[in-house]
């Protein structure tokens, strides 16, 4: 009997090229599940945003760890880098800047 869950777990050196590789593997993992294209897009967007932020804001030369589980009704994603972190609650409490060219990652995660 096959598991109803599919996993993608691992650690990689923080680089944007590796983010692309991980997202390709993620897309292939989801392709087997016959998910709606909007769901695949949403999961990949969230994963790409989280990984890109970990690469951009984690320490140079560090590593990024991804844990992804795709179940029957939900996807669970965890991304960690080796940086000190930040107060994301205070960041989300700030008013949105409609003119900003960045800084929307946490709002994407929330949505």
Short synopsis of the structure:
With 111 residues, the protein is of the alpha+beta class. It is built from four helices and three strands, in the order E-H-H-E-E-H-H.
CA-based shape: globular
Find the CATH superfamily.
Histidine kinase-like ATPase, C-terminal domain
Instruction: Figure out the total of helices.
Output: 4
CA-based gyration radius: 15 Å
CATH class: Alpha Beta
Helix content: 40-55%
Q: What are the secondary-structure elements, in order, as H or E?
A: EHHEEHH
Number of strands: 3
For the sheet with most strands, the description reads: 3 strands, antiparallel
Main structural class? alpha+beta
CATH architecture: 2-Layer Sandwich
Number of domains: 1
Strand order across the largest sheet: 1-2-3
CATH topological fold name: Heat Shock Protein 90
Strand content: 15-25%
Determine the N-to-C terminus distance.
Answer: 35 Å
Which regions have little confidence, pLDDT < 50, spanning 5+ residues? none
Give average pLDDT, whole number: 85
Map the helices and strands.
Elements: E1 6-13, H1 16-31, H2 37-57, E2 63-70, E3 75-81, H3 88-93, H4 105-110
Antiparallel strand pairs: 1-2, 2-3
Question: Main traits of this protein?
Answer:
111 residues, alpha+beta, Heat Shock Protein 90, three-stranded antiparallel sheet, 4 helices, globular
Protein described:
The chain has a three-stranded antiparallel beta sheet with strand order 1-2-3, covered by helices on one side. By secondary structure, it is an alpha+beta fold. Strand 2 and strand 3 form a beta hairpin. The chain has one domain: Histidine kinase-like ATPase, C-terminal domain (Heat Shock Protein 90, 2-Layer Sandwich). It contains four helices and three strands, in the order E-H-H-E-E-H-H.
């Amino acid at each position: 009997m096959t598991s109803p869950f599919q996993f993608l777990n691992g650690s990689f050196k923080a680089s944007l090229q590796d983010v692309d590789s991980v997202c390709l593997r993620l897309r292939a993992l989801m392709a087997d599940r016959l998910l709606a294209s909007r769901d695949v897009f949403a999961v990949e967007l969230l994963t790409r945003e989280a990984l890109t932020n970990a690469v951009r804001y984690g320490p140079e030369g560090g590593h990024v760890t991804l844990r992804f589980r795709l179940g029957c009704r939900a996807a669970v994603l965890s991304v960690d880098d080796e940086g000190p972190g930040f107060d994301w609650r205070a960041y989300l409490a700030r008013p949105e800047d409609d003119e900003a060219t960045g800084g929307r990652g946490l709002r994407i995660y929330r949505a």
